[in-house]
Design goal:
Among the domains are: 109 residues, no CATH class; 152 residues, Topoisomerase I, Chain A, domain 4. The chain contains 17 helices and 16 strands. By secondary structure, it is α+β, with helices and mostly antiparallel strands. InterPro entries: CRISPR-assoc_prot_Cse1 (IPR013381).
Length: 565
């Protein structure tokens, strides 16, 4: 159906996102359903969280809701204004009038300014592309999830609205179809300009007990040190509708970044729903040194970028490692940006601005030290020159707000050191698997990797439970000792299982070369004694340590040195 027939006479179609249900939400009683923008804010205290087809969709929708809240409440300006919102059960009441005022920009099917789209967007040949281009669980040419295999023929208006928001945040890179009016189009194509803005990030936000708490915990005050907000900061719907092509400009603040128009798109639809899309590149945005504008990501200092740009420091988003659980990366969440900084040297890593904000709330007494928060990490890893999504990262870790306290760092340090305890124990377990494999004269990498995965897998649930209750202790050091005992017991039992399963060949053993020269008759019994010595030493239990493979006391030899060559 042509654009004119979509919008002519009495056949004008409309899908008003302020009143029509389209945002999936999980209620605190376990029921799930779709709500309008207005209903989400009206019922926020009754909702556990918003949900989506993918975690990345939830992240994009959360940023949209935060942009609405920041703009409707015009702030908060400072921590005192935030405190008033936190204490007021009806704090989101102004959102209703705000949505009424901007209702014309929230119509998904509007003729002149469709929500997050460009009216009249077309290619030179009036091509209409498959909806696979915007539905992330069907990457073009290679289905990722099986929910919609092999193609997407139609979407409801509610589904399409969610994927439009997701596309601006997470769309893949690669060559895209050129559109009329885009000066970057060459031969009907626009060459790669990068992924959607959120795709650059190691996404982080903080969850509370309900959606009202979650929204407020992520509603950063304008006077937050380290973040910059211009007086002109505004979301996409308070700016002029986007024209084809892209505008190079600097973001003005979180309202702008949370709704950044990284793409130009236009839905094709009829009365039954959406059946096609036109999609191309929009506003470009480089990721370096955006930590003063973007609070929902950790940052890492990049020496290669400093050399390339001839400036220092240069920070890039710290992306998530899909193979590393959130609890193992706890340091990136709770370590203060001022820690481990030598003199005037810039910090190697910056924790997310969202967590700096929550740290301020607990430090200044707006949140109780034992208030339970849940930092949530969401990200995507892209493959084949960023033209497909390989993996989606979604994890969380529950902890008391005191771990972010800027003056009392004892709890945070014990949480970080407890992960180091787990790392030492798992390293010892990996060495045991290596030595057992060497004793049996088989390859070592597979058994070592499997043993490490088992070790971390068995320690994950106990650590999460230990961390969630850490703030209940008056002495976090004592709790750390309890944790070390747990680690020792869990990993020691797993090591005994590995030795029992090693078989007759490993029990008999063979002569192997040592790293520092010489040979040793290695069997499962000796490998086990080395393992238990390393485990005891790493976790502070030095009694009964066995000699090392090099003949030194165990206290003088690291677990790595005991691995054989």
């Amino acid at each position: 159906m042509s654009e004119s027939s979509q919008s002519s006479g009495s056949d004008v179609l409309s899908f008003d996102l302020t009143t029509r249900a389209w945002i999936p939400a999980l209620r605190r009683d376990g029921r799930q359903g779709e709500l309008s923008l207005r209903e989400v804010f009206e019922q926020a205290a009754e909702l556990h969280r918003i949900v989506g087809e993918l975690p990345t969709q939830e992240f994009a929708l959360m940023r949209l809701l935060l942009a609405v809240a920041h703009d409707a409440l015009d702030g908060p300006a400072d921590i005192e204004a935030w405190s008033e919102l936190w204490a007021d059960e009806g704090c989101f009441a102004p959102v209703g009038a705000y949505l009424d005022a901007h209702r014309d920009r929230f119509d998904l099917l509007d003729v002149d300014a469709p929500f997050f789209q460009t009216a009249g967007l077309r290619t030179a040949r009036d091509e209409v592309l498959s909806l696979n281009r915007i539905v992330a669980d069907v990457p073009n040419g290679k289905p990722f999830f099986t929910a919609r295999m092999p193609t997407v023929d139609r979407l409801t208006f509610a589904e399409a609205a969610r994927w439009v928001v997701h596309t601006h945040a997470w769309d893949t890179s690669g060559i895209k179809t050129g559109v009329e009016g885009d000066p970057r189009a060459k031969g009907g194509k626009v060459y790669p300009l990068g992924v959607g803005w959120a795709g650059n990030l190691g996404g982080v936000f903080v969850e509370g007990a309900d959606l009202r708490q979650t929204l407020l915990l992520n509603l950063v005050a304008a006077d937050t040190i380290g973040l910059e907000f211009d007086d002109t900061d505004a979301p996409a719907w308070r700016r002029e509708p986007c024209a084809p092509g892209g505008a190079e400009r600097a973001p003005t603040g979180v309202r702008d970044l949370y709704t950044w128009q990284t793409r130009r798109l236009r839905l094709h639809f009829d009365a039954a729903g959406v059946h096609g899309v036109v999609l191309s590149y929009g506003d470009p945005l480089t990721p370096h040194n955006r930590q003063h504008r973007e609070p929902m990501s950790a940052w890492r200092r990049s020496k290669p970028q400093e050399k390339k740009l001839r400036k220092t420091p240069v920070y890039m988003p710290r992306e998530h490692d899909p193979e590393r659980s959130a609890w193992r990366g706890i340091a990136s969440l709770v370590a203060d940006r001022t820690e481990k900084t030598q003199g005037a040297e810039a910090a190697a890593y910056l924790r997310p601005g969202i967590l700096e904000w929550v740290a301020r709330l607990v430090t200044e007494g707006e949140l109780e030290r034992g208030f339970l928060i849940r930092p949530r990490i969401v990200g995507a890893t892209y493959g084949t020159q960023q033209s497909v999504i390989d993996e989606v990262v979604d994890d969380h870790v529950s902890m008391a707000a005191v771990l972010l306290h800027q003056q009392d760092r004892h709890y945070a340090q014990q949480a970080i050191d407890a992960v180091a305890d787990a790392d030492q124990a798992v390293n010892a377990l990996g060495d045991l698997a290596t030595n057992l494999a060497r004793a049996a004269d088989v390859e070592t990498e597979g058994p070592r990797s499997t043993a490490r995965d088992l070790g971390y897998g068995l320690l994950e649930a106990p650590y999460r439970s230990w961390l969630a209750h850490l703030a209940e202790a008056d002495d976090p050091f004592e709790r750390r000792t309890d944790w070390q005992r747990q680690v020792y017991e869990i990993v020691s039992r797993l090591g005994d299982r590995l030795m029992a399963a090693a078989g007759e060949v490993a029990w008999q053993g063979r002569t192997v070369d040592l790293k520092r020269g010489g040979t040793e008759w290695l069997n499962s019994d000796l490998a086990g004694r080395w393992f238990h010595a390393a485990l005891a030493r790493g976790l502070g239990h030095t009694g009964g340590a066995e000699p090392s493979p090099d003949g030194k006391p165990a206290s003088e030899t690291t677990s790595t040195e005991k691995a054989l060559v």
